[in-house]
Prior knowledge:
The chain is mainly α and 223 residues long.
Amino acid sequence: ICSAVNVNEADAKYFFPPKAVPTFIKQLKQLRNDRSSKKRKHGNLIAKVNKRAEKADVTQKKADVLLKKTGSAPKKAAVAPKKEDVAVMTLKKAAAIRHGEEKIDIKNQTPSQSNMFWLVIWPCLQNLGWILDFGFRPNDRYYIPPGVKRGVPGFKPRIHFFDSQSQVMKILNQDTRWNSRSEIVESIELHSLCLKIFEELKSTKKPHGFSPEWILEEANRKR
């Protein structure tokens, strides 16, 4: 109220008891500082808005000139997909892979341990009822055995289902439900032989000249 009627520090002694004057002066200074800060922020905001408006006006003028000269408007830059769109695309891809409408494509790719897993181990697991699921990020992959459902109480990650190829290989080698099956044993042996050939190629520093399919054929020939 005192600020509204322009009461200053000198007049404070007429409105407040002597003990309350220092407190009033402190609050009055704080109020003035707040007001000046708000004015500065408001001024900065107006300057930013004006700058953006000027930039948009210049861009529009350039587009108009280009349209008159060439008869076509400038191309807009590609916009990166939103996180929600990426999540939707990932879920659609997971559903397509799960229903056999899409497969992991490793053709014409450089040989690697991951590619040899997709080429040798994963088809065998799919025949046994395993499925591949995806998280919200494109690289979040879950390898799920038959009878297991991710996200359902009672099924825990890295115990009932797995998020890396190394975990899958570990469970295939150690769990009696899987290491006793002849098709699993054969796939693991073939996979090991493929990796051995791959390491031999790496030692010659020429793995890029061979495809994962060639390595698989060579492993089958050596068996």
